[in-house]
Amino acid sequence: MSHDTDTRGPGDVGPGFMDATGVTVGEGIARYVIGFVLASALTAASFYVLDTSLIWGPGIPVALVVLAVAQIGVHLVFFLHITTAPDNTNNVLALAFGVLIVALVIGGSLWIMDHLNERMMPMQEIMQMHR
Amino acid sequence: MSATDTSFPRAADPYRVGHGRDWLSAGGRGGGYVHATGHGEGGPASRRVIVGYGFWIFLLSDIVMFSAFFAAHAVLQTATAGGPSGRELFNLESIALQTGCLLASSFTCGLSAVATEVRNQLWTQIGLLVTGLLGLAFLTLEARDFAGMIMQGAGPDRSAFLSSLFAVVGLHGLHVSAGLLWLGTMMAQVFVKGFRPDIMRRLVCFNLFWHALDIIWVALFTIVYLIGLGR
Amino acid sequence: MFGKLTWDAIPWDQPIPLVAGSVVVLIVLAILAWVVLKGYLPYLWREWITSVDHKRIGVMYTLLGVLMLLRGFIDAIMMRSQQALAFHAAGYLPPEHYNQIFSAHGTIMIFFAAMPIMIGLMNFAVPLQLGVRDVAFPTLNSTSFWLTATGALLVNISLVVGEFARTGWLVYPPLSELPYSPGVGVDYYLWALLISGVGTLMTGINFVTTILKIRAPGMSYLRMTIFCWTALASNLLIVAAFPVLTATLGMLALDRYLGFHFFSNDAGGNMMMFINLIWTWGHPEVYILVLPAFGIFSEVISTFSGKPLFNYRSMVAATMFICLVSYLVWMHHFFTMGAGADVNAFFGITTSIIAVGTGVKIYNWLFTMYGGRIRFTTPMLWSMGFLVTFTIGGMTGVLLAVPPADFVLHNSLFLVAHFHNVIIAGVVFGAFAGITYWFPKAFGFRLDEGWGKAAFWLSLLGFYVVFMPLYVAGLLGMTRRLQHYDVAEWRPWVLAAGVGIIIMICALACQVTQFVVSIRRRDELRDDTGDPWHGRSLEWATASPPPPFNFAVLPDVRGEEPYWEIKQRAMETQQLSPEPQYQPIEMPRNSPTGFITAFFCTMTGFALIWHIWWMVGLGLVAAYGVFVWFAWREVVEYVIPAEEVARLDRARRQARERWLAQHARASEPA
Questions:
Q1: Which of B110, B109, B119, B111 is nearest to B196 (CA)?
Q2: Closest residue by Cα to residue B217 from B57, B77, B98
Q3: Nearest residue in B to C243, CA atom
Q4: Angle, in degrees to the nearest 10, between helices C138-160 and C115-130
Q5: Which residue of C has its CA nearest to A115?
Q6: Is C6 one of the catalytic residues?
């Protein structure tokens, strides 16, 4: 537990550890370069899609979300070194739990508040009625 | 040893859940469960794994906090109250520049981590310095955008939409600022104390933090800015 | 210079808070003076305030929680007595004061009584049950505690300096927005909860990491005790829910401090978004509180029935099921918002479904008791009282889960009776069961059974006499938070509840007497074996109180009830396992980091409440300073030499050998 010694137990890695598979410097840099190139390409695509006529107008937000999810995936794999290997199970499970909660918070809030907006007069009009 | 090590007598407990009866005779510490990796059966994990995992959980909680702000923005983005909408306010060029800065800083942060792995003081410091400078550039651009909007009378007190915009983007900016303060102390620690295990653990955490900020930015520029522009 | 803070902030014209506040201040000063004069201060600083030992932190958490429970209970007495008097009359509490009291009651009971007690018990018992030496991040643990204490302190300062929120315990906007609550009450609420919320979040991170990454060798997931499982579920929920609370209260703070429009009436703000977000935290919070209590009941019922827990695996499954589904029910807190049928139906059904998980647990507890040789000790009585009472509370909860019924009962006293029914029976009974169960482990002597049982029976009776009439009053249409009323039909029920609170006061007196009597008779009640209840899990394997390192050698876990098996083997072979090779043990050093951080957080929080901006800046700079100073520490651990470990462990082994000799021929231990 001291800061002088730090054994690296076999078969269990924390998130962000590069040494899981024993990479060399070259491989390490290569991995970040690949990640950077992919992420840059996806970012550029996002900005490009915005004004393009290649995609049907109402589909653009969907395309943007797809690109963002892809880019987040690239970041997770190439920058945060999250893998599907068994030694990473705990990290991936925690991530899945986090993603589930995020989906519940955002999805649930939108669903509930949409109902409110549909079924109630806009706040502005209510306020005007009180005047 | 790997998780697929077959030397472990599986028959007694095929699913490795600890309910087989033969473990009593298996002998040794933990009755042979040291083979089941990743779940701590072999006793407490190493300090490095504990710290990394704890910080990972913190990052997830942080992302949950962001999700509440994203939810608020999603609900309030049409509530412009007669004020300007995103289409009138957003400066696509500046946003692209900010995105570039942050992405590049994530990349250089990763390169510094590679240098840290081989305990190269010079390149670690250079990597961290460039990361910090890019982060600073990002913050400056963002502050300029914010100042410009406030000058136009489109500050957070103008409408609920702008409140949510300033809050979610500002929260990310605050994280980047805190990250920069942390980065400064990390550079000093690496310089003074060298690559001690405790410093290495902190560097891993810092790397995770910085990459996570970039992930949040991806969600931010997509949902708040790009989709907001199309609205 | 001092922002909004002037001498007028002290309520000179209101005798009740002034007198109450002065008495509290005098008591605190007297205790401080006594501590200083007796020369206990260095001891307190060394052994408690700067301690990073999970057992010490657990005890301090529990103590804080019990003190705040008393404070919240005084609020409850005032509310019940006010309503008993205020029929066609004004009563003795003016409305603005009454509103502060019900707001403070809810805030204190949930955040500063229930949470600290549950977190305290988890702190104390989880590492022991996992067979390890400490939590993942000991200094962070200490910081968590002191941040919680900061929040409690700020809420209590509001008693004498300024005022507390008058908005109810969840500060619903737009009432809590600046135009309608211009005072500092809501600000006290916001900063107390934001600061202590960070502490709680760090506890959650700490315990998730501890339970998932630090366990004794051989302790697979399905060999952990149910209390560890419920602690895991509870802390996962903390990690998932508390950030949402921080975000929501942060948005309200932005509204109040910087003129944002998240929840305001004008400029497009949406108050229902606050209510949506706060309950996204609020419903998981209910399970954050009650899941550890479920774990305590599981331990207690299994121990005192002399049987392993019935259907351990279904208990684990039910725990994780509740953990997940508790994040899918929040909308039932505002059915009356007027969402459509599909939203209401979805959340009504998930709410009913979550009762299934709890039902599984109830049957498991019943079947654990079935055929067991039950010892009716105090913790067991609390558990059995819980089983009956909580089931009633659960039933009324399922009633409220039906949206049409909820439209009738929303914000009535029926609702108030329901949530007190589940929280008192679940969390408060669980807290007392846990405290009496683990008290001998923490201090080496038991609590007096006679006074404990008296406290239990009076609490149980008092609970029914207070809250069953409130169910009826609610069905008769009485809403919550009434300062006065003039409906004659409600009168008898309110008076009955008033009688109930007198019984509760007697119960409380018994609790206090129990502690006083037990401490005085500690030599008679002492237990030197470390296993006073004939327990089954690992915490009973070590001495009472446990040494700083908990276990001289980490236990080698080979089953679901490791200690029970060790004990059976010892009794069969008439000897303890061979003496191990003692090694020196490294333990984390004490650190004042937590206390100093909390000091500056208190300062910053107070400055923010009163708009003393220079002090805010100072606090933030100091916080960064503490961070850097902490990062620069060189020596973070100390070593307990092998001889010291051997000495402590041999003393424990001698006590165990005496115990073994006493039970040489008894097939069944006492």
A1: B119
A2: B98
A3: B65
A4: 170
A5: C339
A6: no
- Bigger pLDDT: A89 vs B112: B112
The ipTM (two decimal places) reads 0.92
Closest chain A C-alpha to B75 CA, distance in angstroms = 6
A14 contacts B52? CB cut-off 8 A:
yes
For C31, the token pair is 């205790």
Q: What pLDDT, on a 0 to 100 scale, did the predictor assign at position A7? A: 45
For the beta carbon of residue C667, count every other beta carbon within 10 angstroms. Answer: 6
Range C515-533 average pLDDT: 90
Is residue C186 within 8 A of residue C283, CB to CB? The reply is no
Rounded to the nearest angstrom, the minimum Cα separation between C109 and chain B is 25
Residue in B73, B161, B163 to test binding to C, most C beta-carbons within 10 Å = B163
Q: Angle CA(B72)–CA(B74)–CA(B77) in degrees, nearest 5?
A: 95
Scan residues 544-563 of C and list those with Cβ closer than 8 Å to B. Answer: 554, 556-560
Tokens of C151: 């929040």
B interface test, pick of C137, C260, C630 with most B CB neighbours within 10 Å: C260
To test the contact with chain C by mutation, choose from B66, B157, B182, B187 the residue with the greatest count of C C-beta atoms within 10 A, namely: B157
Query: How far is residue C557 from each of residues B22, C52, C132, C547, C602, measured CA to CA in Å?
Result: 14, 26, 11, 20, 44
Which residues make Cβ contacts (< 8 Å) with residue A24, sequence separation at least 6? Answer: none
Residue C637 at interface with chain A, using a CB cutoff of 8 Å? yes
Q: In sequence order, which residues have a C-beta less than 8 Å from that of residue A26 and are 6 or more positions away?
A: none
Q: Does residue C173 surpass a pLDDT of 80?
A: yes
Residue A43 above 70 pLDDT?
Answer: yes
Which of C514, C362, C548 has the alpha carbon at shortest distance from C445? C514
What are the helix and strand counts (H, E) for chain A?
A: 4, 0
pTM equals 0.91
Helix, strand, or coil (residue C620): helix
Q: Which of residues 23-52 of A touch B (CB under 8 A)?
A: 25, 28-29, 32, 35-36, 39-40, 43, 46-47, 50
Q: Which of B51, B56, B223 sits opposite A94 (nearest CB)?
A: B56
For residues C149 and C171, what is the distance between their CA atoms, to the nearest angstrom?
Answer: 21
User: A9–B221: do the CB atoms touch at under 8 Å?
Assistant: no
Nearest CA in chain A to B57: A94
Helices assigned H by DSSP within C476-610 = 491-520, 562-573, 593-609
Contact B160 C554 (CB under 8 A): no
Copy the structure tokens of residue C647. Answer: 């000495």
pLDDT range class, residue B81, cuts 50, 70, 90? confident
Residue C265 pLDDT exceeds 90 = no
Is residue C304 within 8 Å of C379, Cβ to Cβ? Answer: yes
Extract the tokens encoding C350.
Answer: 């998930």
Which chains contact B through at least 3 pairs of Cβ atoms less than 8 Å apart? A, C
pLDDT of residue C340: 84
In the residue annotation, C61 being an active-site residue is answered as yes
- Longest Cα separation, chain C: 81
Cβ partners under 8 Å of residue A90, min gap 6: A12, B38, B39, B53, C212, C213
Q: Is the dihedral of CA C57, C61, C62, C67 positive or negative?
A: positive
**Residue B39 predicted with pLDDT over 80:** no
- C420, C446, C536, C656: which is the annotated catalytic residue? C420
The answer to whether the CB atoms of C214 and B40 lie below 8 A apart is yes
Is C237 in contact with C281 (CB distance < 8 Å)? no
For the record, the structure tokens of C337 come out as: 């918002």
What was the pLDDT predicted at C577?
81
Q: How far apart, in whole angstroms, are the C-alpha atoms of residue B120 and residue C169? A: 54
What contacts B109, CB < 8 A, 6 or more positions away?
B127, B128, B131, B206, B207, B210, B211
